[in-house]
Amino acid sequence: xxxxxxxxxxxxxxxxxxxxxxxxxxxxxxxxxxxxxxxxxxxxxxxxxxxxxxxxxxxxxxxxxxxxxxxxxxxxxxxxxxxxxxxxxxxxxxxxxxxxxxxxxxxxxxxxxxxxxxxxxxxxxxxxxxxxxxxxxxxxxxxxxxxxxxxxxxxxxxxxxxxxxxxxxxxxxxxxxxxxxxxxxxxxxxxxxxxxxxxxxxxxxxxxxxxxxxxxxxxxxxxxxxxxxxxxxxxxxxxxxxxxxxxxxxxxxxxxxxxxxxxxxxxxxxxxxxxxxxxxxxxxxxxxxxxxxxxxxxxxxxxxxxxxxxxxxxxxxxxxxxxxxxx
Length: 327
Prior knowledge:
Elements: E1 5-15, H1 18-28, E2 31-35, E3 39-43, E4 53-57, E5 62-70, H2 73-85, E6 91-93, E7 104-108, E8 114-118, E9 141-149, H3 152-161, E10 166-172, E11 181-185, E12 193-197, E13 202-209, H4 213-225, E14 232-238, E15 245-250, E16 256-261, E17 274-277, H5 281-284, H6 293-297
Parallel strand pairs: 1-4, 5-8, 9-12, 10-17, 13-16
Antiparallel strand pairs: 1-5, 2-3, 3-4, 6-7, 7-8, 9-13, 10-11, 11-12, 14-15, 15-16
């Protein structure tokens, strides 16, 4: 069944200090659509809708939900019926229960991740040509989610065979059949979601698209000038996998943000997924330098969509290890 899932749409993050978070996300060049003492709604420069990031002030940092946009309201009904047929509880969020967005469905997915689907969001002015307010990295749009899960193969099979995602690139270990990591998409780019072998379920990062590589450098300069140099965790660099320029940052609560540019078109029907070996030194960073241990070990806690409690994690099915690079 084709549910016509369009793309990664928004993330809802819990943060402990809204003002510190505002300083950080403003420095990335996101646009504040609406806010109060408990919430900030951000959109990016290209966005014509209310938000792609909702920050909620809470006692503890966590991920409330990651959301995918579908084409039409009937796709929500199809998805709800499908999940219920599999014994998955569906939580409806009616229009008006969340600011700026229409009705949604929330589930705990096959990996234990809190996932939401929506079709409608309030309109907002696009800021694409408001060059007078473009600052920092000049974030253009939300691009993807990267999730740490304990069983990548299960996630891979389910999202492709049941939800209609396609694979652009994947990682195995020295020709073994088990998938260590997979980059899956609905839009014709490299990914809307990636799954990585790790302690999970957790959210590793939210990726935001930049218009060009220089915007990434501008982002570094602006962050440093604003006193946020210490938030830079990894990069700048170029991934071998995806070909993208990257910069990884940690927000004041430790949520990881990737600034991202330079992947490629994957929409042709005869596109063949690219396989990488786990220990290929060019896979993670095309220029060869290793990622810090924190990039492999740390990620954001996710919540149960039904109870609001923290979701427990489990060790990965495959041995968890940092890739060994022989250069």
